[in-house]
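Async update (no meeting this week)

Hi team, since we skipped the sync, here's where things stand on the single-chain job. The sequence we agreed to prioritize is pasted below, unchanged from the tracker. I ran it this morning and attached the output directly underneath so nobody has to dig for it. Comments welcome in thread, and please keep replies under the output.
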Amino acid sequence: MQLKELLFGVSIDAVLGSTSVSIEGVTSDSRAQGSNSLFVAIRGEHHDGHDHISDAVKKGAVAVLCKELPKKQKDGVTYVQTPQSRSAYAVVASNYHNNPSSKLSLIGVTGTNGKTSIVQLLFEVFQHLGFSVGKLSTIENAINEHIYPATHTTPDPMEINSFLAKMVEAGVTHCFMEVSSHGIDQHRIGGLQFRGGVFTNLTHDHLDYHKTFESYRDTKKKFFDLLPETAFALTNNDDKNGAYMLQNCTAKKHSFALKNTAEFKVKIIEHDFSGMQLRIDGIETWVALVGDFNASNMLAVYACTQLLGENIDQSLSALSAVEPVSGRFNVVSGSHPIRAIVDYAHTPDALQHVLETINKIRTGNEILITVFGCGGGRDKAKRPLMGRIASTLSDKVIFTSDNPRNEDPEKIIKQIEAGVPAEHFKKYMSISSRSQAIKTACQLAHKGDIILLAGKGHETYQDVKGERLAFDDAKELKNHLQNKS
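Output:
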């Protein structure tokens, strides 16, 4: 493909050299540079791609896309100056792969909690409806039955478009994609053509990156500002930020809610630890998920089926057929007489929702033991909030390590402990070893008691000082409970 074709739709300030040069690859990583390639210089938080332009040229780049032109240019290399290299990179990536997002129905899901669940549920529901489907999510990327590891919630633009191109080649008609605030802020979704966008909720998270809640909220809103008139924007009316997302949005506006007035409504008729009987738009259906948050997620999925023109009865039947999402309120099975639950809840709002769900379902005659920690190198302000929530809504709590990364686990735990109200001091203990904390919870639990292991969910590792050590919450629980029985 020629450079001038790749630059279609890119804002350009200046061009030094020919745009008729042939391009065989595009990257923003000078280390991965190949011959006859385009290097995009991006200024990041820790590294500036402009510092590596000469390295990229030495390794074979015949064109450079950058915000600032280098003082010295090499003969035979084309330099293109753009006001925003991140957004330009996203447009180039889409052009390089022949704009695959325009050839399928791409639905983006954003919000603090529920993104992964809704994407996975949409993926399964549309499979049940008989479509060829794809997904880009935190847990994994997939093209029908073919699974690919996920590295980021919202990948690099070249990676996104490469996956979408593979989907188009495989005959995929619908792709469901998590859209993270980082991905929006870093223009990774630029150049993509969405058929719809879904807003789940907005709570305390990622303030280590966005600094303020307002900045975090406004970043999410940019996704809806970018939706075209032909797309739909579906927002959660149970969250006051839903209406804010729709301000100045030109897409067709729709809403769903469990509690408030909305176009799509759901009511929980009954529930236990195996599932719920829901009334969705006046029709009752059983689903194998639990909790208000999952009822809301299911409603969002149902609403998408209707906005995409699917049959009501077939859509509800497909909802009844789906399995719980990995790491989201998963009841760990076994011969033990203790109910053990693994959940990804790693924000104050998510932890509160899962504990409130358990407290609604339980008899009250059993003990609820919660085990959780907070990740290192992330939003520190949420740590005491989660300590308060867990100690207030549980009978016993064990604070432990999550993914400490480069922080001291003991210091993280101290910050969690700071949120425990004085009247709940006797409820908690702290054990930095996550394995030992899980073992202790299993030893404390008796027949009929409930253990909630929160924070890591589907993850099968612990991130400690730059290393990913094998660690699976569900396996740890099974092993300790099996030894107990």
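Quick observations from my side:
The chain has a mean pLDDT of 94.
The CA atoms of residues 3 and 95 lie 10 Å apart.
Reply here if anything looks off.
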